[in-house]
Amino acid sequence: MVPIYLFTILFVIFPLIYMIVLSFMSRAEVWGVVMDFTLDNYKKILEPLYLNTFKESLQLAFLSTSIIIFIGYPFGYYMGQLEDKWRKRMMLLIMIPFWTSSLIRLYGWIIMFRSNGVLDMVLMGLGITEKPLKLLYSYPAVATGMVYALLPFMILSVYSSVEKMDWSLVEAARDLGASRTKAFWTVTFPLTLPGLMSGVILTFIPSMGLFFIADILGGNKIVLVGSVIQEQLTKGRNLPFAAALSVILMVLTSILIRLYRKIFHTRNVEGLV
Amino acid sequence: MKKIAAILLGIMMVAGVLTGCGKNTTNDENGANQTTQEAAQTAEATAESTDSNTTALSGELNLYTWDGMFPQEVLDGFEEETGVKINYSNFDYDEDMLAKLEETKGGDYDLVIADDYIIELAIKEGLVQKLNKEQIPNFGNINPLFQSQFYDATNEYTVPYGSGIPLIVYDKEAVGFEIKSYEDLWNPALEDNLAIVGNYRVIDGITLKTLGESFNTEDLDTIQKAGDKLLELAPNIRLISDSNTQDYIVSGEVSAAFLYTSQVTQALEANPDLSVCYPSEGLGFGIMAGFIPSQAPNADAANAFLNYILQPEVSAKCFESIGYYCTTKAAEEFISPELKDTLVVPDTVTEGEIIQNISQEAEDLHSEIWKKFQEACD
After folding, report:
1. CATH fold of B167-282+354-377, please?
2. Between chains, do B252 and A115 touch, taking CB under 8 Å as contact?
């Protein structure tokens, strides 16, 4: 057990404390930080400019998470009911893309989306559009990238809860006269809800911070909280402000997780929180 | 068992997604490592320096700069001539480099090549040592146009290695008019058709230029005025990118682009039919230069390397490969004729303004303006 504690202290608790302390310091004139206590970093976040970034990041996260639920839940649901042999094959197919870097896979989307790219060729070939669409560097492109990058997390968490489910409960509901839909909503859905919720948490939180997707597919025009933090760390040379932004982001996400638990009356989110 | 496997898979996947944004790790833990490493290296260095009294040059040269700043044959040539082994490590941003030097207190690296403004900061922080000009007899080969700049007014710390002038590159046919100035970028004919680099000081800077102001003005009202004007550019912006921006004009994704020098060179190489505009409002100038960190383990090798790359033939090879304006006057005649146009600074360029460090308030305002601009673009 000792290594676990050590690991947690070294790699979770210590960096966390470091970040929180840093967020109350001031930036040094040239580089680095000075130990002057200040609340300015947090005050600065309250400016409409930065509040707006949080708002936009949340919006994008809601949008992509909704799409992911829409695709991922049915996917995981049916996958959990497949024969063992096919299940394993499906699992392999989902995992294979993870063997290459997510960055490289995103560049694949550029080839799809760019003017006169694959998608344009197909659409124009079929006579649906006449001239190249400007699909790349737009909001939908970024949302597509988010959904693509995070969908497997949803599929796998739904799958794991469907797989564990006791199907005799559904049979019992059917025997007692429930229709297919009713049995699904009263038995299956509540039993797979923890899987769905853990999927939501695994997709919603990262989608606020995956700035490289917004950079690559959004042409740097869509600014997420993650991009601001990255810019403050590099070009802005303002480490304390970046730390304050990260702290707020963390507080925000933990509030959201709490909210989920309240709304869905579940403490069990697949052991994630 | 299955659950454990699932959790492990999950962790692997999260790690996979997160590697994409792994560029900026917290520097703290590295710091601890580095100090022990540093101690080891200073011990090594002292051992070496006693050596170097007997033999001229030995050991390793830790070179720290962007990726692809030297052709392999030049690196090999130096290793062969001196027997010093070169360790090439690279950074993406100047700021990463400065952070690294702060961490190592000016140790670990023997030679750094970076941008002008960051060198000023590094010198201010006491992280740079003076050059040993006795070991650099080729110092006189440097083009004086690129010397005595704000970051090193007395030329004691740096050797310039390449200069950049951001320019507008465009496809005349697609654009439909001749671009003569920064102001022309605001032309509505360019709607959703312009790619620009992502450095806010540069982009805010050219907006200041269209108002007849300096890149480096610290007057907040003036900067704000430029910021308001910059917002009007938003409808024309197709994308903002610092890396490989030239690809978008070459592939026809955009019809005009505001690019760094090396990108201009590459764009023209890929498509010689593109037109280049030297904006009439005045040019922006950037200089990259090499310096030796204060605690460099092998400063002798660094001085020798600087001397090596200042040889006219070697220097010419370097600039042909990196595609920046040649800062070694003596090398100009060795640059191949077809590249002369793009690599030798035109005689007409007698002045250009360099972007310098400005007051914190002004810098912050620039950064805010940039964020507003990005939001207006989407």
Report:
1. D-Maltodextrin-Binding Protein; domain 2 (3.40.190)
2. yes
